Please model this.
Amino acid sequence: MISKFLASQLRQPSGWFGKQVVSRVLNRDNASMNKLALRMLNLKSADEHVLELGFGGGYLLNRILKNPGVKSVDGIDVSPEMVDFCKKRFASDIKRGKLHLNCCNTVNIPKFNRNFTKICTVNTIYFWKDVKQTLIELYQILEDKGSLVICFNCKEFLKQTTLPKHGFQVYDTEEVKELMITVGFKNIKWIINSEPKEQFVCIVGEK
Model:
């Protein structure tokens, strides 16, 4: 079934199709969300340590790395193909120690030797086995006054597709906001994009 196959590739790009096709589709189709996430990250200091959870084809990683205020970047992705793709794409940044990439499940976040000033994730929350636990772990590796940016497609928008039938857990703004508050995030703000073809939310909270 094509829709099931495509949903599985969006969840975890794999094989030749994932590396050569899905990586580029993610970069193209998530461009608006990534641009808003970058804006909401508000990268401005001279010592930003940034983590992206689920970097896919590397569209947002690329723009974060180019920001003059960023000292180091870490990336986590569940797909070995996406990690391999981005290791080749950003080989020079990895070689000079500015970028570190890890392949792991989103809940089992690896132990880092630093905390982060900013964390971002785009279109991954649907796949978290335990949203509250993942938020707790992200909160723990944020510096004080650090911020988390989460972008995701609106619940009503995704319900118009077949994706929820194939393992996509859908959320609305209030659900995510309340979970963030429960974990300890404060000063929560969000922007909703309501264009017919791109209905998504970008929400940011501070530790």
